[in-house]
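Retry 2 of 3 after timeout on previous attempt. Resubmitting structure tokens to design endpoint.
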């Protein structure tokens, strides 16, 4: 065995001659390579790279009926991909704007039930048509070549000939003259780009706009209603009883953060009542109203033990004393249940005098700042 292999492709390896296996930089100067045509560079690179072409199947004849039919098929697939992608954008952006609004409710029907499936359908169809277009383009328009090539380290020669091969691939693809495919690709790319960017809108917009975590539907003059929609007057409840009430607004009895406990205290509880600071006038006579949402993990609290004046959360056993401003006296909860200021309207029905002055439910990281 000789110490130096003199076969084509073994004399170079870097921009300067060396022992690495690569293109023959000693045989062809950069000037000689620059003077060659792309086809010559392509063939030369294949020969010196040890590429063996086993089979070549050319693409359709340029301008032939076969090529035109294939171009129409590929363009149609890419155009449909763009159409479905833009339909995704229309559904996503248009909901609540020029299309019906949707809600996260299991019992919702109509548009709310169709919103998410339509997004999935249009995205799935768009991606499917992208795949169909690529398959049609590859099988019907690109020349097919089967070749075997040995791997080796690169050199200047390899870079130049590889670049010629890539340019040759673009030339063989026919994209430069098949304008229908090029335009449909641009249309599809725009639609897919928008489709993929749309869901990021929920991450970009400020989720605290309007303070959704710190406000509820309770407001001045809003009546307290039972679950069946009937209003409540003082005297409707027995002393020591608890009634879950909701705001008199559309869908109020389905708003999780608005559920409120209206409690009528017994005389001895009224004597022991010690409101929190700033809540002295929140009660109405022997009636107090507290949020039903536990401040620990958001479970509904309503197990009321009137003998001890405690409300129990069944999830983690936090207990709140209703005579002490519903402050926690046992369990993992660390904040008192927010109290709703209540009064009576001209017809003698209970109303809220304002919204809760603090956020209901569990603590969140920026609760004190909004």
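Retry 2 succeeded. Sequence:
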């Amino acid at each position: 065995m000789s110490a130096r292999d003199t076969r084509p492709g073994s004399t170079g390896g870097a921009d300067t001659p060396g022992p690495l296996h690569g293109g023959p930089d000693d045989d062809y100067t950069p000037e000689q390579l620059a003077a060659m045509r792309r086809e010559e560079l392509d063939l030369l690179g294949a020969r010196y790279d040890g590429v063996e072409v086993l089979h070549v199947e050319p693409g359709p004849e340029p301008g032939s009926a076969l090529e035109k039919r294939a171009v129409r098929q590929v363009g149609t697939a890419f155009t449909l991909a763009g159409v479905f992608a833009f339909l995704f954008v229309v559904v996503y952006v248009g909901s609540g704007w020029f299309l019906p609004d949707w809600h996260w409710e299991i019992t919702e029907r109509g548009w709310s039930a169709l919103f998410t499936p339509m997004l999935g359908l249009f995205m799935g169809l768009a991606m499917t048509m992208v795949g169909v277009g690529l398959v049609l383009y590859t099988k019907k328009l690109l020349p097919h070549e089967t070749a075997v090539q040995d791997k080796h380290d690169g050199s200047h020669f390899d870079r130049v000939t590889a670049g010629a091969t890539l340019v040759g691939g673009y030339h063989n693809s026919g994209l430069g003259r098949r304008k229908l495919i090029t335009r449909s690709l641009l249309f599809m790319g725009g639609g897919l780009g928008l489709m993929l960017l749309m869901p990021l809108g929920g991450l970009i917009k400020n989720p605290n706009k309007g303070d959704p975590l710190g406000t509820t539907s309770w407001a001045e003059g809003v009546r307290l209603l039972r679950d069946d929609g009937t209003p409540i007057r003082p005297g409707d409840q027995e002393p020591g009883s608890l009634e879950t009430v909701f705001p008199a607004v559309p869908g109020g009895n389905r708003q999780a953060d608005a559920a409120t406990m209206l409690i009528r205290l017994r005389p001895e509880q009224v004597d022991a009542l010690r409101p929190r600071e700033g809540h002295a006038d929140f009660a109405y006579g022997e009636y107090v109203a507290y949020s039903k949402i536990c401040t620990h993990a958001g479970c509904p609290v309503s197990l009321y033990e009137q003998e001890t004046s405690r409300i129990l959360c069944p999830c983690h056993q936090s207990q709140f004393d209703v005579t002490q401003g519903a402050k926690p006296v046992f369990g993992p909860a660390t904040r008192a249940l927010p109290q709703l200021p209540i009064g009576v309207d001209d017809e003698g029905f209970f109303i809220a005098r304002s919204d809760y002055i603090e956020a209901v439910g569990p603590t969140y990281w920026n609760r004190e700042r909004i």
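Attempt log closed. The longest strand covers residues 52-57.
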